[in-house]
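Table S2 (continued). Query chain:
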Amino acid sequence: MIEARQRAGAPFSALALAAALIAPPAWAESVSDAPGHVTFRERGDGWVLANSEGMTLYTFVRDLTPGTSACVDACAETWPPLPAADDAKAHGEWSIVDREDGSRQWAYRDKPLYTYARDGSPGDAFGDDVGRQWHVAMKPIPTPAEVAIEKTAQGQLLVDSRGFALYTTDNDPANASTCTDACARMWPPVEAPWAAQSKGDWTVVQRPDGTKQWSYK
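Corresponding output:
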């Protein structure tokens, strides 16, 4: 089960000492609807989008209006748009941008996609956070609303809505929690809404007090 650590101090001996480090699950359906020339590279918090040659794709914070691109002229020379064929059609989370010069560009979740001219090899991501306006395009791992993914020096961590790291314990059997009373006060469960449903690597567990709790893998 997952608990949130709220305060500093010696770790409770019954619980694991490390936060729940995450790795992308093999959810093939998550990437199957992508255009044929878009590829994916696993990262701790999901998948990095890349073109067919493995060059990292980026999004631009100034692209605020769906269906349009704010990166033109000299900007587009440094950040070449990901081209869409004349017969390409929008589908799912993928849409088409009609650019000012008449060309077409792929967008993911309404964000136009670009490569970076200074990336020299597949896997390079030198464009990430350039000017605090360019970011690696990602397909994130789905999480419940009560859980987020945070990048730290230790890697990608699961955190709760307040940013507290989440923990697990080897004492819990499958789909049950043994952390109650004083234990639960020290290690508060990450509660799931009463109507929450298990999905993918996330399971809803019924606690002894009648509340529900999220469990990961």
